[in-house]
Amino acid sequence: MIHHVADIHLNAYLRFNLSDRSSPHIRPFYQDGFTSLPDSMTPISLPLPLISSLYHRWVTLLRGMLEENFNASYYHAADQQTLSLYDVTGMYVWHSQHHLANMT
Ligand code: NI
Fold first, then answer.
1. What's the structural domain count of the chain?
2. Domain residues for 33?
3. Cα(25)–Cα(23) distance, rounded to whole angstroms?
4. CA of 5 to the centre of ligand 1 (A)
């Protein structure tokens, strides 16, 4: 589960940084394929500092953003929808809380 959070949120952070007012198409990835890779079998001591560092960067970015910056967006081809950074921020807050609840 912790590897899943690291995989998903690393991709989310990169997508977040790629978004702009032209709504670029982001590259889909296949979550299930990640779970079969050797790095998903490593001890949780590996993804935990990765997630901690990632969240430190992401929260710093979020706190530095102006309200209008949250209007930037990307187009998710697999879901066929344009997502603003308002949408994306809410989605990943939910995702973090969802998996935290599962683990605790
Ligand atoms: Ni999940």
1. 1
2. 2-103
3. 6
4. 6
The b-or-e profile of 13-51 (16+ CB within 10 A means b, else e) is bebbeebeeeeeebeeeeeeebeeeeeeeeeeeebeebb
Q: What is the CATH number of the domain that holds 24?
A: 1.20.120.450
Residue 59 in tokens = 């929260």
Distance from the CA of 100 to the center of ligand 1, in angstroms?
10
Give tens-digit pLDDT for 8-60: 999 999 999 989 888 899 887 777 777 778 888 888 899 999 999 999 999 99
CA 18 to ligand 1 centroid distance, Å: 21
Say which residue the tokens 């930037």 belong to: 72
- Nearest partner of 19 among 93, 86, 80, judged by Cα: 86
Q: What is the pLDDT of residue 55?
A: 96
**The pTM of the whole model exceeds 0.70:** yes
